Amino acid sequence: MNITFRQLQIFEAVAQHLSYTRASEALHLTQPAVSMQIKQLEHSVGLPLFEQLGKKVFLTEAGNEFSRYANTITTQLDELEQVVNEMKGLQRGRLTIAVASTANYFAPRLLAAFCQQHAEVTVSLDVTNREQLLKSLLENRTDLVIMGQPPAEMDLVAVRFMDNPLVVIAPPDHPLVAHEHIPLECLPEETFLVREQGSGTRSAVERFFAANQLALSTAMEMSSNEAIKQGVEAGLGLGIVSMHTLAMELALKRLVVLDVVNFPIMRYWFIVHRSGKRLSLVAQAFQDFVREESKRILKIPAA
Ligand code: PGA
């Protein structure tokens, strides 16, 4: 089989996005260039690796097998690059980090402070929800992840570094704003805007309602904290979001945190990697930095 490393990278991008257009954008190539490389690769392999049904692209059985091996080869090459960098005694390198959508409200500040101390480091930051973060860890696509409590059944190393309180938010003219110690029993009378399935915030909210035997009435499902805050401001319903997302809205008095009994729902932030993963010097340095410096650099907004 006569294949090039470039073809492997292009194959991985198409397999990850299941779209020639998105793969070509990610690789900064034209779509015909990507299609051509995949055609040549399929010719070398002697089997189709992708099939297109309607507008959707799927991996064939051979494509799935190919994907497994391609992933191992590129991971090994990344490791080789890290080992060589370490042998050169370099503190510079690439830090690949993925964070929960909600952690995006503080992660850039941590990265900025870290990069001030390590000017040579280049950072690739992926912002996505909890489900996708777990997938990235499983597929070894990231050095480190910042997320809520990781599942016990996965073989991960997780270091807890900060609180993540979830609170009930309302627009300033909502009748409950005037009340203190609002009993939990009032919540089923309200409708809520909730995050998408796969979000850590969403599952924490669902667990909380179930544990307190309360019915959760959802007005709408939204795939970002920003959409929820805008929706709550517009009067579409109440929301339950992390305090980390609220600095601006509270300062501008666009939203109010309701004083509900048993709130906040307390979650925590963890910096996580797969156990057994060979962390680069840069990734190790960032992990230590988060553990030691996050309290100094980050402040949780006050209600
Ligand atoms: P989310 O994750 O942004 O996917 O909701 C945050 C969390 O796990 O608390």
Describe this structure in a few short sentences.
The chain has 303 residues and is of the alpha/beta class. It has ten helices and eleven strands.
Main traits of this protein?
binds 2-phosphoglycolic acid; two-stranded antiparallel sheet; 42% helix; D-Maltodextrin-Binding Protein, domain 2; 10 helices; Arc Repressor Mutant, subunit A; 303 residues; alpha/beta
Shape: globular
Strand content: 15-25%
CATH architecture assignment of the largest domain: 3-Layer(aba) Sandwich
Write the CATH homologous superfamily of the largest domain.
Answer: Periplasmic binding protein-like II
Description:
The protein has 303 residues and is of the alpha/beta class. It is built from 10 helices and 11 strands. Strands 3, 4, 5, 6, 7, 8, 9, 10 and 11 form a 9-stranded mixed sheet that branches. Helix 5 links the parallel strand 3 and strand 4. Helix 1 packs across helix 3, helix 1 crosses helix 4 (61-87) and helix 2 crosses helix 3. The protein is globular, with a radius of gyration of 23 Å. The N and C termini lie far apart (62 Å). It binds 2-phosphoglycolic acid. The site of 2-phosphoglycolic acid has 13 residues, from helix 7.
